[in-house]
Amino acid sequence: AQGIPTFENVAGLMPYVSKGGYVFLSGVASQGAILVDRNGNCYDQEQPGMACGSMLAHATPFFCPAEEDYCLEGKTARFSWVDNCSILQWWYDNLLQAEAFVHPLDPSIHPILFLRIAYPERKTRYYCFCTSGLQDVWPNTRMEISAEKYLSEREDTLQWWKENSPCAQIYIGDDRWHKLLKRTLINGLITFSGGRPRYGHAYYGLGQGDNFPPAFITMAETLLMAGDTIRAAALVDYVFCYIVRADGAFAYYGPTAAEYGQWLFISERITRRQRIFRHMKKIRKIVEHLLSMRQDNGLIVSGAEADTRFRIAVYMNNNLWAVRGLEAAAAMVEDWGE
Fold first, then answer.
1. What is the pLDDT of residues 284-303, one digit of tens each?
2. What angle is formed at CA 255 by the lines to CA 253 and CA 261, rounded to 5 degrees?
């Protein structure tokens, strides 16, 4: 219809990533991830080079396609996802095709990568990479496996995602929007480690970013808006159990007043759909913690974000979200009593 943006128009507005881009493979239970850059090189997120703060510049790949075939030196791969689950394929014209995945239930900090490499007119080979993360034995243990073993793990991965794929449904004429939404939700699920919120990947996958409030706030809201209320409720439960401390503060180095308000706001929207809610004492403690930031004039003073947490002042955003959060907490008291 006229006036409705097309997929091509929106895609044309997105910035082109000319350097440093990557995709990531992980499981919903994994504590780490495997990164694949534009050239098809594979990295363990938890290796020492990631701590340098410059993404992949100081990292060492444990798999490099150019070492398999010198003709691939400097070539950029094309990527796609298999059946909208966490199995990645990439290829270079007619030179090489690769496929890789991490089993969704792999719980390790250095997840095992299963990799298939197919050359034209050559035998297809199957590998698993077990990265240790130890600098003295870096980068990895590479084992060739049978086609049967690879295909068994692949089928198990496909079946798991088929049974546990995000349930979001949107109704837009172009099916690519629906696939994009599913892909975005899957990326969020495999970025988290089970219920534990992670900031992101590469340098942003380091432990200091765990429990980043915008990560679990936006994830909860996204799941709710996508209709995945079961996962949204599970995330709310996790945050109240393991991130909200006994005094009502988040277990993070620089939360803001706005983030407390946002969490109360989205929690109320999610919990109104539940039959049982066990965390009213924590709600009360968050309210007390939020109100402890007030000045004599009633306005709240707080940092604006974690990186500028020492610039304590009255910010409009913090006060507006504090009001919305307190209103949400009052609604929860009416619903659940306390």
1. 999 999 999 999 999 999 99
2. 160
